[in-house]
Write a structure and sequence with these properties.
Blueprint (H helix, E strand, L loop, with lengths): L4 E7 L6 E6 L4 H14 L18 E5 L2 E2 L17 E6 L11 H7 L6 E8 L5 E11 L7 E3 L6 H5 L6 E3 L9 E7 L17 E3 L15 E4 L7 E3 H13 L4 E3 L3 E3 L22 H18 L3 E2 L8 E2 L7 E3 L11 E3 L30 H6 L2 H8 L4 E3 L6 E3 L6 E3 L6 E3 L8 H7 L3
Parallel strand pairs: 1-5
Antiparallel strand pairs: 1-2, 3-4, 3-5, 6-7, 7-10, 8-9, 11-12, 12-13, 14-15, 16-17, 18-19, 20-21, 22-23
């Protein structure tokens, strides 16, 4: 593959980014050199960084995805740096210029910023589908990316909830001490720092080899419900499940979550809290989902919805008002006049008793056998892997207890880092497949 020129956007605080052109195979040192040359050529008024004649190449400190980029010999692709990537630059403290970090420690620290095919997002545009995501970090106070973490996140709570992980904002005008994580789509070139997406944290690679609760296939990706059994469903069956529930108006208006679904096996405490998972329906059906959710919310608070197909206008008429007119406006309304009590066209006299037919789901809303539910249980597979209360450190063999949390262990005796599930030194593959459990 030919070596191509790529543009890297280097920012300092709120100023416009400096565009640096390097080769796609360039090392971190080559990027720093190109940036150094750019800064030396800039006029004092046009320079984005407070640069002096005494500053040298080693004074450049690059921050990306919560970590300082240290290994100058490493190629940019090792840090997941590509076309239009945004990196933050600060001038390092000269007192700490001699600080060295080993390559092994460096790669572990920069794991947050690397491509991770085990985080999944829904990219509405331009991809329009579920894609792998890139985890990024910024200061919770000033929203700038020149932020270094004190430690890596170890669970979804650390990533999804603000101010769970502390650190230091490198911006001289900010004293921020807490991180805010966000995601970008890995399926297309970044369109800027505001090109962010929502993580679909229930979608995981099927590393446990569990069956889909509906079709019993063993897919590469599954959505794992938050029920005690952790029932799993493949993405296509999940789409069909959502569509069948949508068609029969089977979604539930939850008090705190909103319009959502529970595990298809009917498990308690299994509601999907992040409604962006329903984006898998596609744009047209997701619009229906939002409309139905608004209607259900209206009905829950004593309002009514126009019964005319494809209208969906909502009203709050008086309690005894029988005649309701769906008033036309530039936003909604169709002009239909209907009876408040039977929802037919408005009429005199008593309402006729209407027969109601409840549409059935397309084979997905059903009672599952115990065998199906067991095969689709992610939790059972997890417990099979974590069936021991203690394991020996792979380096010094001292027994170590896993008290919960992530699978990244550190031996209290020899300080080596290892994977609880694999019982081998901690590596990128372990981080991707089961870092958060």
């Amino acid at each position: 593959m030919a070596d191509e020129k790529i543009k890297i956007n280097v920012k300092h605080g709120k100023a416009d980014p400096i565009v640096v052109n390097v080769n796609s195979s360039s090392s971190l040192l080559e990027l720093k050199t190109a940036l150094f040359d750019n800064l030396q050529q800039a006029t004092p008024d046009g320079c984005k960084v407070k640069w002096s004649a005494n500053d040298q190449l080693q004074d450049i400190k690059l921050i990306f995805a919560g970590r300082e980029l240290i290994d100058d010999s490493a190629p940019l692709k090792d840090f997941d740096i590509c076309e239009n990537t945004v990196i933050h630059v600060v001038l390092s403290d000269k007192r700490n210029r001699s600080r060295k970090v080993s390559d092994e420690h460096h790669h572990r620290l920069n794991a947050v910023g690397e491509e991770n095919e085990y985080f999944y997002i829904y990219c509405k545009s331009p991809c329009g589908t579920v894609k792998s995501g890139k985890l990024r970090v910024r200061c919770c106070s000033c929203k700038e990316g020149a932020f270094t973490l004190n430690k890596d996140p170890s669970c979804w709570q650390d990533v999804l909830v603000k101010k769970q992980i502390s650190g230091k904002c490198e911006d001289t005008n900010c004293n921020g001490q807490f991180a805010e994580f966000y995601f970008k789509c890995h399926g297309h070139t970044s369109l800027g720092e505001n090109d962010t997406v929502v993580a679909l944290h229930l979608i995981r690679p099927n590393s446990m080899g569990v069956s889909c609760i509906t079709c019993l296939d063993i897919p590469d990706l599954v959505l794992v419900f938050r029920c005690n059994a952790g029932h799993s469903i493949c993405l296509e069956c999940f789409r069909l499940y959502c569509l069948s529930k949508l068609n029969e108006r089977g979604f539930i208006q939850h008090e705190t979550i909103g319009y959502t679904l529970r595990c298809p096996a009917g498990c308690d405490d299994s509601f999907i809290e992040e409604i962006h998972h329903f984006r898998i329906l596609g744009n047209e059906q997701y619009d229906r989902y939002q409309s139905f959710g608004a209607e259900e919310l209206t009905l829950k608070h004593g309002g009514i919805v126009c019964p005319k197909p494809r209208c969906c206008a909502a009203f709050h008429p008086g309690h005894d008002q029988r005649r309701v007119e769906c008033m036309k406006s530039h936003l909604q309304g169709c002009g239909f006049v209907f009876c408040r009590f039977c929802f037919n066209e408005y009429h005199d006299g008593h309402c006729d008793e209407l027969l109601t037919n409840t549409p059935s789901a397309s084979g997905l809303s059903k009672i599952f056998t115990a065998e199906q539910a067991e095969k689709a249980s992610w939790e059972k597979a997890s417990k099979a892997l974590i069936r021991l209360t203690t394991k020996p450190c792979p380096t010094c063999k001292v027994k170590t207890e896993h008290g919960g949390g992530c699978m990244h262990m550190m031996c209290a005796q020899c300080k080596s880092e290892w994977c609880w599930l694999c019982n081998i030194p901690w590596n990128r593959d372990c981080q991707g497949k089961h870092w958060f459990g």
